[in-house]
Design a protein that fits this description.
- It is a multi-pass membrane protein.
- Pfam families: VIT1.
- This is VIT family protein.
- It is built from eight helices and no strands.
- It is mainly alpha-helical.
- The radius of gyration is 25 Å and the shape is elongated.
Length: about 230
């Protein structure tokens, strides 16, 4: 008899948002690092092959650097989450009364009477003790950990995709459109990443967009100036 594979647990909203966050940050870094190199090199030389190779090399370096950083960061977070679960597993065995008190306090802060809160705590800890403690103390779901591979691949792809915009504009647009086209491509791209970051972080969209565009313009200006020195 063939065994059916267990279904993979669906990602929580936090897991999905973490992957999207890595993607947005990766895209923004890809855009700015690549355009920085492109402007420096293009201001120093008109050789299209040199400009393209410099931009492409930086795009790949940025993409893999962002992916590696996300993998290391989220792996550390995952290890911390697992350590927290093991800590609560031990506390349920050694300090059960304190765990009951913690659940009771949680529900009392929500306006539940002490007697009812104690009854809820006893019931929850009798049925799903570890799940209850992880949820109440750390706002986590047992068995759901941040996936470092999801964050790494999201960052790798988005950083590559983000860097493509200035690279294509600078190397393939006609000479008359090269500089204004690249500036426009970068400005629109960072405006989009600013918008997405504000939506994901529930921040002020207008402020995030304006901030990103200003940072993009400053980045282009500084690197262009550096290129003119050589």
């Amino acid at each position: 008899m063939s065994k059916t594979k267990p279904k993979k647990a669906k990602q929580t909203m936090d897991e999905k948002l973490n992957t999207l966050r890595a993607g947005v940050l990766g895209s923004n870094d890809g855009i700015l690092t690549v355009v920085g190199v492109l402007f420096s090199v293009a201001a120093a030389t008109s050789n299209q092959f040199t400009i393209f190779i410099a931009g492409l090399s930086d795009l790949l370096a940025c993409a893999f650097s962002m992916a590696g950083g996300e993998y290391a960061s989220v792996s550390t977070q995952k290890d911390t989450e697992k350590a927290v679960v093991e800590k609560e597993r031990r506390l349920l065995k050694t300090n059960y009364a304190d765990e009951v008190a913690a659940v009771k306090r949680h529900y009392m802060t929500m306006g539940v009477t002490e007697k009812t809160a104690l009854a809820i705590a006893d019931d929850l800890l009798a049925k799903k003790p570890l799940e209850t403690m992880i949820s109440i103390k750390y706002d986590m779901q047992l068995g759901h950990y941040m996936n470092p591979w999801d964050a790494a691949f999201s960052s790798l792809f988005s950083a590559s995709a983000g860097g493509v915009f200035p690279l294509v504009a600078m190397t393939f647009l006609p000479d008359a459109m090269k500089w204004p086209g690249t500036i426009l491509a970068v400005s629109l791209s960072v405006a989009l990443t600013g918008y997405l970051s504000a939506v994901l972080g529930k921040g002020n969209v207008k402020t995030a967009v304006i901030r990103n565009v200003i940072v993009g313009i400053i980045t282009m200006f500084i690197h262009y100036y550096i290129g003119t020195l050589f």
